[in-house]
Write a structure and sequence with these properties.
single chain; about 180 residues; alpha+beta; 5 helices; globular
Length: about 180
């Protein structure tokens, strides 16, 4: 039996799993952040979030490196990912990765008040405390484009509205 042919055949037969972008976001309480500073040095972190329409909001402190990067209006990469303990295959964890533009929301504006109330409803009374601290700012993460993966051979391009654009083909997958 030719092992290579068998592997290639199984890859061709792999059927994409129906995308569940909104369900993944709904099952996630925090977002993983990737930012860069003015010198191009990368930084990764996370923050609890709320979603209002297609925008994600995070309340973050200037004590963290990523906050200055976000406050300076640099784009970020954000990722929502399936919990490791819930995955059947560690190499194929369900995940949504988005390129996002960033903007700081003015303290005590209508958007600030609405989002902070949503954060409190979602994440508890701690939001009352940290939202009053002057080093905490509210950042909007507006999706630009991204990708959604929910298994081997099941990857999709996503638009700014978090809608699936198209299934990625497997042209880049190669066997030895």
């Amino acid at each position: 039996m030719n092992h290579t042919n068998s592997k290639e055949e199984s890859q061709r037969k792999a059927k994409p799993v129906a995308p569940k972008v909104k369900e993944l976001i709904g099952a996630t309480k925090s977002v993983i952040l990737a930012t860069v500073d003015a010198e191009g040095n990368p930084n990764s972190s996370y923050a609890p979030f709320v979603q209002v329409e297609n925008t994600f909001y995070i309340l973050v402190s200037f004590m963290a490196k990523h906050t200055k990067n976000l406050a300076d209006g640099r784009n970020a990469s954000v990722m929502f990912i399936e919990d490791e303990s819930a995955t059947k295959q560690i190499y194929a964890r369900e995940r949504l990765t988005l390129e996002a533009s960033t903007s700081q929301i003015e303290r005590d504006s209508e958007v600030w008040n609405t989002v902070v109330n949503n954060l409190k409803e979602t994440h508890g009374k701690v939001v009352d405390v940290i939202s009053e601290m002057k080093d905490f700012i509210l950042i909007a993460l507006q999706p630009v484009k991204g990708s959604y993966v929910n298994g081997f051979g099941s990857a999709y391009f996503v638009d700014e509205n978090l809608e699936i654009i198209e299934h990625r083909n497997d042209a880049n997958h190669q066997s030895k």
